[in-house]
Amino acid sequence: MGLIAYDGVDAAAFAANRHLGDDALGEWRAAMLRYLDPRPGLRLLDLGSGTGSWARAFRQWWPGVEVVAVEPSAAMRERAVFAPILAGDAEAVPLADASVDAVWLSTVVHHIPDLAAAAREIRRVLRPGGPVLIRSVFAGRPDGIALFRYFPEAVAVLDRYPSVAGVEEAFAGFTIAGFEAVPQVTAPSLRDFTAGLRREAHTPLQLISDEAYAAGVARLRAAAETADGPVVDALDLLVLT
To answer: What long-range pairs does 14-17 form, CB within 8 A, spacing at least 24?
Structure first.
């Protein structure tokens, strides 16, 4: 897949625009606990950790858990809110065989060029029976995401993402232990969402035309004039064991 490579501009936009607030993080913490036992001594790999916001949250939530973060983009690592973050990617994880108890991938799978190779590498570093928790928007599932309501042209980009069935096929030998949509407060209001939007922070927006992007921004601004309440998105959590 490998849709984009994060350079300095992309990484800065991601850091400014994609870190979730406490309410949204709380929903994901609860969802993870349905599949993960964060006992003291557990070693959790945050693979494709970006600027480290998830790794930081895991360390705060579960002080007894050892969090290992791996990220391929130097620009992301330079802006990290967590340390250390190791250089590496899903096809070349810089860890020993059977050295982690669980793996977390957040909005990562569509950036991996060879998902089957990544699955084999994850199998190598993961201890038997450990869960792989994949947070993502999958192909064919745009309905729960506000971005796609205002930028419908971006659905064609989403269709290039892995589907749930495609991930299951790539992770041959794993079985699906859970699949659910997790609601999160993405922004306190549509007005805030519009004001804070940065195109470089969202892969689907980078890959549509300038005209389609401008049209979507116009739709957002018009809707923000009358919309009430928070922006709530529902990303999927796919759990494999």
So the answer is: 14/50, 14/51, 14/76, 14/200, 14/201, 15/51, 15/79, 15/81, 16/196, 16/198, 16/201, 17/196, 17/197, 17/198, 17/201, 17/202
